From TrEMBL:
Record's protein name: Pyrroline-5-carboxylate reductase
NCBIfam families: proC (TIGR00112)
Keywords annotated in UniProt: Amino-acid biosynthesis, Cytoplasm, NADP, Oxidoreductase, Proline biosynthesis
Family: Belongs to the pyrroline-5-carboxylate reductase family.
Organism, scientific name: Glaciecola petra
Length: 276
C-alpha cells in the first residue's frame, strides 16, 4: 500500500487544519506520501506553523490557493462552517471533492459548493495519525470507480477503509468508529481514576490501562475466528474476579448504555444534516 500511495501522483489539500486533518496528514507522511504534494489551509497560523514544521507540507491561509493546488480537496471544517467555506470557493469540475464532515449529506455539499462533479464522503477517525485509522467511504452511484478506489487507497494508507453502500451508513460508521475512540478514552479515564483511588500512581494507572487496552485490541485483531464473547469468556474464570466485574457491568446495563450512546451519535448526525 505504501508503494501505491507514493505513486498516486496527485496533490491533496485539506481545507481546515484541525485535529482530523492533522491526523490524516501525519498518517500520510508516515507512509511516505510526498510532503510537497500536500497543502493545508486554515485561517489562523499556529496550526499551519506546526504542520509546516512537523511535516514540511505546504500551508496557506487562502482556501482558494489550496483548492487551486490540489487534485483532491478534503473539506475538513466543522459542519456548521461548511456552507460558508464552500460557497466562498470556486472548484473546477476536474477536482475530486471529499468531505469528512459529520452530518452533511452529498446533496447539501453539492449545493453549497456548486460542484457538479460527484462528491465523496469519508468518515475517518483520529487513530489515522498512527496508521491505525478506520474510515467509511460513501460514493454515490455517479462517482466513477477510479475516484472511489483512489480514496480507498488514500484512507487505507492511514489505516483500514470500507466502502458503504448507503449514505445513512456513514452515520453508523460515525457511531462505531468515527466517535468511538472517545468512548474508549472515556473508559480509560474512568479506570485510571479508580486505579488512583486504589492507591497507585497516575503513571502506573496509565500503563496498566493502556497496555491492557492495547493487548485486548490486538488480541481481537489477531483472533479473527473468535467472537468477542469468546475472548471475554476466556478471561472469565468461574467464580472468579472477572465474573464479578462483568456481572456488575451487566447489572448496570452495559449493552443499553452503549446502544444509547451510539444511537445518540447517529441522532446528532441526523439533526446536523437538517441544521447545517
Ligand atoms: N475529530 C475527529 O475525530 C473527527 C472529525 N471529523 C470531521 O472533521 C471535521 C473537522 O473536525 P476537527 O478536525 O475535529 O475540528 P477542528 O476544530 O479541530 O478543525 C477545524 C479546523 O477548521 C478551521 N477553520 C475554521 N474556519 C475555517 C475557514 N473559513 N476556512 C478553513 N478552515 C477553517 C479551524 O481553524 P481555527 O481553529 O483557527 O478556527 C480548525 O483548524 C468536522 O467536520 C468533523 O465532523 C470526522 C471524523 C472524526
Ligand atoms: O464529534 C464529531 O462530531 C466528529 C465526528 C466523528 C468524530 N468527531
Amino acid at each position: 500500500m505504501s508503494q501505491l500511495i507514493n505513486n498516486l501522483n496527485k496533490n491533496i489539500c485539506f481545507i481546515g487544519a484541525g485535529n482530523m486533518s492533522t491526523a490524516i496528514i501525519a498518517g500520510l507522511i508516515k507512509k511516505g506520501f510526498p510532503s510537497d504534494k500536500i497543502m493545508a489551509s486554515n485561517p489562523s497560523t499556529p496550526k499551519l506553523d506546526t504542520l509546516a514544521a512537523d511535516f514540511r507540507i505546504k500551508v496557506t491561509q487562502d482556501n482558494q490557493e489550496a483548492v487551486d493546488f490540489a487534485n483532491i480537496i478534503i473539506m475538513a471544517v466543522k459542519p456548521q462552517m461548511m456552507q460558508q467555506v464552500c460557497s466562498d470557493l470556486v472548484f473546477s469540475q476536474d477536482k475530486v471533492l471529499v468531505s469528512i464532515a459529520a452530518g452533511i449529506k452529498v446533496d447539501r455539499l453539492s449545493s453549497f459548493s456548486r460542484h457538479t462533479s460527484p462528491i465523496i464522503r469519508v468518515m475517518p477517525n483520529t487513530p489515522s495519525a498512527i496508521g491505525l485509522g478506520m474510515s467509511g467511504i460513501y460514493a454515490s452511484d455517479d462517482v466513477n470507480e477510479a475516484d472511489t478506489q483512489m480514496l480507498v487507497q488514500i484512507m487505507s494508507s492511514v489505516g483500514k477503509a470500507i466502502i458503504v453502500k448507503n449514505e445513512e451508513d456513514i452515520d453508523t460508521v460515525i457511531a462505531a468508529a468515527g466517535s468511538s475512540p472517545a468512548y474508549f478514552f472515556l473508559i480509560a479515564e474512568a479506570m485510571q481514576k479508580e486505579v488512583i483511588n486504589m492507591g497507585m500512581s497516575p503513571e502506573q494507572a496509565r500503563i496498566l490501562i493502556e497496555q491492557a487496552m492495547l493487548g485486548s485490541a490486538t488480541l481481537m485483531q489477531q483472533s479473527p475466528s473468535l467472537e468477542f464473547c469468546t475472548l471475554r469468556a476466556n478471561v472469565t474464570s468461574k467464580g472468579g474476579t472477572t465474573a464479578k466485574a462483568v456481572e456488575s457491568l451487566q447489572q448496570s446495563n452495559i449493552n443499553d448504555i452503549m446502544a444509547k450512546a451510539m444511537r445518540s451519535a447517529v441522532k446528532r448526525a441526523q439533526e446536523m444534516s437538517k441544521q447545517f
